[in-house]
Amino acid sequence: MACPVQSFCRGLRTVGLVLLYYVFSIGITFYNKWLMTGFHYPLFMTLVHLTMNFCLSALTRRAMQCWTGKPRIILSWKDYLRKVAPTALATALDIGLSNWSFLFITISLYTMTKSSAVLFILFFSVVFKLEEPNPYLILVVLLISSGLFMFTFEATQFNLEGFIMVLLASFIGGIRWTLTQVLMQKAELGLQNPIDTLYHLQPLMLIGLFPLFLYNEGLSLSTTEKLFRGTELSPVLYSVFTMSIGGMLAFGLGFSEFLLVSRTSSLTLSISGIFKEVCTLFLAAHLMGDTMSMFNGLGFAICLCGISLHVGLKTYYSKNKGPSLRKLNSKSAELEFPLLRQNGDDRRDSAAEDEDEDEEQEITLH
């Protein structure tokens, strides 16, 4: 049994990792909303973020290769175009539409609507046979759906166009995370490491989002004085600098999510995500002036109950039925990324005391 000092240190580490995750997750939400108030080119901003993510992931891969002495995986063109392209396109549309919606809706409405992604993830997980259907899923769907309806019903700051964008992004997000889970479960591809997955996804995401950017923002962006037709250097540098900060936040968010789960468990990340939604709405009300009625607040609470029930059921089934997904040995995949399912074998106290011991983790989808 771990001594009190070790337990305190592990608890302190967990709190620190959760706070780091909160900083990047909540930070990028508010930062993108703030940036969109003066820079009305969300798709171009997303392209900048994707470019930075690719560069940072490439640098990280190089550093990992120098540290471990092992070459990083590089897919063949056949596997790259046939197996990675669908995931990359879905991811690009999910992120692009989410950022685009900030032009129309408040952070509160964005946060609440984006929570509906759980419904679509469950739906596509059942379709792809990654999730076993059970009667409790119906209750989860009803709670989240009714909560979303109550939150948006006669909301004083409701915008239909932005709401449809976020809802569509959540739908595509369900496809995105399901395809990502399938992609990362294929051991023959060797993309269990999230940095390798990020590295391979970004170029195709750029290619997939670029036509939509040209159609909606290409002409307007080419004539704006904030970038390409700027008469002074300082406004151009300011625009590039502000978008670069967003790119670093986006990369930090993905890495902090992985770091949190690799050092604790996917259950910790799921529970942290629930409280993160509450923190986001609280900050949106106090910092951005978002308002909602008592009826809307009740809808948000019901939605959180649905998400909490989903997390609890995942934990119960993983402990009683064991993992149903293929496991990977930690020697062949030194970094693993949780996606939807909870870890079937959460870290025990004895495993925390001996971090060098080989472990097997279930690939999950968050």
Provide the descriptors you would attach to this structure in a database record:
membrane; TPT_transporter; mainly alpha; two-stranded antiparallel sheet; 2% strand; transmembrane; 366 residues; 2 strands; single chain; disordered C terminus
Question: How does this model look, in words?
Answer:
There is one protein chain. This protein is mainly alpha-helical and 366 residues long. The protein has one domain. 72% of the residues lie in helices and 2% in strands. The protein contains twelve helices and two strands; from the N terminus they run H-H-H-H-H-H-H-H-H-H-H-E-H-E. It has helices at residues 4-36, 42-68, 77-101, 107-114, 117-127, 135-152, 160-185, 194-222, 233-263, 266-287, 294-321, 349-353; strands at 327-329, 360-362. Strands 1-2 form a two-stranded antiparallel ribbon. Helix 2 (42-68) packs across helix 3 (77-101), helix 2 packs antiparallel against helix 8 and helix 9 packs antiparallel against helix 10.
